[in-house]
């Protein structure tokens, strides 16, 4: 008998402005990006470390999903990519869920 297991979800958040400043932090972030199937990057407030992590993910061929608060202007290098805009932390889960449903439909029907 074959049992299908649900995919596992592991999250890493970079709290605080000094996070990632040590070699150990950056090594852990790089390892997480290299082993991830998908990276979700919140581009709100244009934090340079997030843009660096996005570039690192792209360099390793890891798919990136962009998030940003409504009204946020994205930098030129990501502005042409699809982004999930959310009003607040309460609306974010529904916005992300809608995106995932749409993504599954696009992949299923090759849209």
Per the CATH scheme, the topology name is Rossmann fold
Secondary structure category = alpha/beta
Amino-to-carboxy terminus distance:
34 Å
Oligomer: single chain
Number of helices: 4
Give the overall form: globular
H/E order of the elements?
A: HEHEHEH
The appropriate CATH architecture is: 3-Layer(aba) Sandwich
Q: Are there runs of 5+ residues with pLDDT below 50, and where?
A: 1-6
* Percent in strands: 5-15%
Instruction: Please describe the biggest sheet, giving its number of strands, its sense, and whether it closes into a barrel.
Output: 3 strands, parallel
- Rounded to an integer, what's the Rg over CA atoms? 15 Å
Quick gist of this model?
By secondary structure, this protein is an alpha/beta fold.
Write the layout of secondary structure elements.
Blueprint: H1 23-35, E1 38-42, H2 48-59, E2 63-69, H3 76-79, E3 83-86, H4 92-108
Parallel strand pairs: 1-2, 2-3
Describe this structure in words.
The chain is of the alpha/beta class and 111 residues long. It has one domain: Rossmann fold. The chain has four helices and three strands; from the N terminus they run H-E-H-E-H-E-H. A three-stranded parallel β-sheet has the order 1-2-3. Strand 2 (63-69), helix 3 and strand 3 (83-86) form a beta-alpha-beta unit. Mean pLDDT is 79; it is low at 1-6.
């Amino acid at each position: 008998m074959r049992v299908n297991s649900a995919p596992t979800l592991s999250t890493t958040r970079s709290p605080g402005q000094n996070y990632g400043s040590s070699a150990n932090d950056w090594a852990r972030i790089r390892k997480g990006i290299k082993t991830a199937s998908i990276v979700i990057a919140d581009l709100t407030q244009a934090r340079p470390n997030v843009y660096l992590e996005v570039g690192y993910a792209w360099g390793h061929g890891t798919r990136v999903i962009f998030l940003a608060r409504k009204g946020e202007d994205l930098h030129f290098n990501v502005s042409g990519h699809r982004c999930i805009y959310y009003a607040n932390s309460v609306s974010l889960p529904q916005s992300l869920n809608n995106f995932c449903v749409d993504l599954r439909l696009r992949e299923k029907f090759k849209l």
